[in-house]
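Hi R.,

Quick one: here's the ARB-07466-like C-terminal domain-containing protein sequence you asked about.
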Amino acid sequence: MTSPGRLGILGTGLVALMIAPVLIVGLLIGGVAVTQPSETTANTSALPAGAARLIPELERVLNARCPELPLPFAAAHINAESGWNPHAYNPQGRAAGLYQFQEPTWISAGGASWDTAPPPAEADVFHPVRHLEIAVPWLCANLQLVRTHLADSGKPVDPLDALLVCHIAGCSRVTGSASGIPTAGEAGCDSGCAETITSYIDRVRIQAQQLAATPVPVVLDGLPTPTPFTGTTNGCTAPDPSSTGCLTPATRHALEQLLHAFGAPGAGAPIRSFTCWDAHAWNPSSDHPRGRACDFFPGQAGVFPEGAELANGWRIAGWLRTHATALQVRYIIWQGRIWSPSSPDADGWGRPYTGGGIYDTNDATGGHYDHVHLSVRG
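And here's the predicted structure, written out as tokens:
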């Protein structure tokens, strides 16, 4: 829910604009109309490990209280707010729990007040199941409110996007804008406000699409088997064709074998571009400055791949994984997941990638969604 911590970005008038919709919507909870069945499956491999045990509870609450809210969308919304941490707390905004509710909104939705900041550990806002049981009907009421408004006004915005506007900036931003998503100068929204709202919607929508997608089977037909590496490790001595730096012999071998399998990089090719050696000043412990890592981009850097580019990324990751022994693979990072020969899969391909406190795992590059990272032993 909108918090004072976001107000510095969104504009100083946001609190006043937000409170009125909150109190009005609270009256609508008992009259929510069910119009569409919810999507009842979500590919949770892109979510933090803690989400797996709560997804069934979210699905149960959605089916009982808000079937029209798609499960992948609801899961992505929670991930954008709290990263599925039930005890998440924003000290600036005094927002708590999975959906990051502020206390006045939480009370209006039916939750208990808290007297301390942060709330005590036993507070219902921090209890994940209770949080979902209170938050989901509240969100459903907002969804019904904006759906009715959009239908009456003829605004073209998807009601789910309008729901996100309500959540981050208040429902008056929906009713007070021409399209339902405010631009700079509308509904008390300045340029920072408009940009933050748009970015928030894009972030939730992109991950919702990823969660709704059926995992594409990795088909390796037609790809050659690589020649195993039989050399010795003697430091970063081989030239890197992607830079003026160097690679270890094992890394150079893996690179050559992969390019032989998938062809030369370029627009429309399975590998659009690649980069290996890099100083990585922001992460000196990386394998890149040691010449032991390469990143392979199936599409444009900084963009979440879709369609054929996403499938090509999975083929690259799958081929490297299949031939991990021959190629001396240490680990692979792709689509917010990390896999290594020594660790079993958990909740999908590999296990959730945390970013090590250095990378923003919700970012296309930080989460390794736009590129396959390969680290090589030796």
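The chain has eleven helices and eleven strands.

Cheers,
M.
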